[in-house]
Design a protein that fits this description.
Elements: E1 14-20, E2 23-28, H1 39-47, E3 53-58, E4 66-69, E5 74-84, H2 90-103, E6 111-120, E7 126-131, E8 139-141, E9 146-150, E10 154-159, H3 164-168, E11 174-179, E12 183-188, E13 196-207, E14 212-216, E15 220-225, H4 230-236, E16 240-252
Antiparallel strand pairs: 1-2, 2-3, 3-6, 4-6, 4-9, 5-6, 7-12, 8-11, 8-14, 9-12, 10-11, 13-16, 14-16, 15-16
């Protein structure tokens, strides 16, 4: 048995913009499925690089032949693909419930294994493909940016160094951490061309606001005042900043993750 796909993944209106491992990012040049009333908006949106993008997973090209996805992200699949819950016993289910409650991510992320293709729901955000092993022992990601990853990658809840991050730093008390060897797909409000990547060697990076998309798990992440005194912080007009210390990598955008137009 076999399936022949026509006009997919690439076609007259779509092209692959990035590939890594068994993942491809498909970008549509224009949004043709619009009404006459929406045509003008769609035309100028495409000129400003506001386009629909989809993540395509080729299970045959993954070492584990399986992927983990954000709940509800799958659009369609072809081939001998078997979905599963990814729960391995009562203890694993309890751990995932706790992880989901503290990170804000879906507690249960479905897994798909076998041989075939899986295509995720389109998004107007940008899709980043990252090799987790390049982040020095693991990576931590901003809430809401997770899209999909090789099932061999372990997902954990990572606690920030200081609880003040939850109170006033624009970050949660916990973030989702990824550990192992494989590829993760992230959603970003900014294209890769605008992202800043800082490689620290026993140094410090301070960012005013939740601009970081991902950072190495080995970095110490805290939220601190810009000056040692409350009066000094108030006078500087900055207040609190997100601080990353140690040796590792930080990838951040010029705008916060929430700064993107409503896709609804």
């Amino acid at each position: 048995m076999a399936i022949q796909m026509r006009n997919f993944p690439e076609g007259q209106n779509a092209r692959i913009t990035a590939q890594l491992g068994g993942y491809s990012v498909l970008e549509y040049e224009r949004d043709l499925s619009v009404s006459p009333q929406e045509a003008q908006l769609s035309y100028f949106a495409s000129k400003m690089n506001v386009r629909r993008r989809q993540l395509v997973c080729h299970l045959d090209q993954l070492a584990s032949r399986s992927v983990t996805m954000q709940a509800g992200a799958m659009q369609w699949m072809a081939g001998d693909v078997q979905p599963r819950t990814g729960i391995r016993g009562v203890g694993d289910f309890a751990r995932k419930l706790v992880r989901g409650s503290v990170t804000g991510e879906s507690a249960i992320k479905p897994e798909y294994e076998g041989s075939g293709i899986i295509t995720l729901e389109p998004t107007y955000k940008y899709i980043l493909l990252e090799q987790v092993s390049n982040w020095g022992g693991g990576m931590v990601i901003e809430d809401g940016s997770y899209l999909s990853s090789d099932s061999a990658i372990e997902l954990r809840a990572v606690m920030t160094t200081r609880a003040s991050a939850q109170i006033a730093g624009g970050e949660g008390l916990f973030n989702l951490g990824l550990f192992g060897d494989g590829v993760v797909a992230l959603e970003s409000c900014a294209p890769r061309e605008e992202l800043i990547i800082a490689d620290l060697t026993d140094d410090v990076l301070k960012i005013d606001g939740p601009l970081a998309i991902a950072w190495s798990a080995g970095l110490e992440f805290t939220v601190e005042r810009t000056t040692k005194s409350l009066i000094g912080s108030a006078a500087s007009g900055e207040g609190l900043v997100n601080v990353y210390r140690g040796t590792g990598r930080v990838m951040f955008a010029p705008v916060a993750q929430g700064h993107v137009w409503d896709e609804s």
